[in-house]
Amino acid sequence: MSWQKVQLAEVADIERKGVDPSIIEPGTKYLGLEHIESGGKIIGCQNVQNGELASTKFQFGPHHVLYGKLRPYLGKIALPDFEGICSTDILPVKPGPSLDRKFLAYFLRQPKMVDYASSRSTGANLPRLSPKALGTFEIPLPPLDDQKRIAAILDQADELRRLRQVAIAKLNTLSHAIFHELFVKEASEAWPEVQIGDLVENARTGPFGSQLLHSEFVEEGIAVLGIDNVVSNDFVWAKPRFITPEKYEQLKRYTVRPGDVLITIMGTCGRCAIVPHDIPVAINTKHICCLTPKNKMIRPEFLKSAFLMHPTVLKQLGIEAKGAVMPGLNMGIIKSLKVPLPPIVAQAKFAKRLKAIQNALTAEDRARNKNEILFSSLQQRAFREEL
Questions:
Q1: I need a surface site. Which of 2, 83, 103, 236 has the fewest CB within 10 A?
Q2: Is 192-341 in CATH node 3.90.220.20?
Q3: How many Å apart are CA 287 and CA 330, to the nearest integer?
Q4: pTM, rounded to two decimals
Q5: Between β-strands 338-340 and 193-195, what pairing exists: parallel, antiparallel or unpaired?
């Protein structure tokens, strides 16, 4: 027998109990859209201080589904386990007795429902979904026991995704811990401080001005690397840009090579990546400084990590912590930076450990993709009445 379908407003209340900021008690938990990730994970909250909030907010509790109505394509649909107040760009939805809260959240988070919500929103620059439009969404209504069973199955699949993400996050922090252990905590006073300019065979930026015009890019040919290939601090293939072999002959001096270290010097400055060993012929743009390390003195893995993590280098750049955005950077600044230089054997040991971490990350990423496919399949089957 097919499930009954009803409009959301028939089985849930979209509550907008406005709270005047003047009566909000200090210490009350506040959630804004910035505290909810796409997919619904709550990433902290704000404890309200006296006079901190200037506009009306909504009340919510652990019986609500919080629905982000601003930019609904982000899918910010959360299940809080505490009471508090939230931005009026978040709609607290209270399911009635015939509707399970988790079942509702999983249904609304489906990609097709997120797309549907986006199609019903209004406003070009800041699209919003109205409470009235949300109330008209058609919701399946199987028996409550079936709703709870389906939500429990999706909970288990979702937990597998979460655990995989935690494992990947821990692996991503491990390289910093190893670098700190080997080259900061156990640093030797005997290690000389050497300028990066003395540790590289070549340092160059890409072609400037009329040397390479945007109109000269073609559909295929010699790859041109930009900020988007480096911005994640790992080399990735991003937006394809190519020049003809004939144009490349004019720009050969900007060729990047396996093991080169790329540093962004325009846009998002200070991001860093190593050119992979299997890269085809390519050049870099003027937005990137390309360093070719002297292999007998410095490994590219150490150079990249020192630039991003070493407190001595960060201090010279005026940065208090790794990951901060650098206000300005050029090739001269990079070459003048001094780095405590450990023996090449120690650097090789570090590179070997990084390789093991990368292999583990690759395996975890494959497993994460499988978990995503499993969750997506279960989600689709659940709301096609196949679970």
A1: 2
A2: yes
A3: 9
A4: 0.74
A5: antiparallel
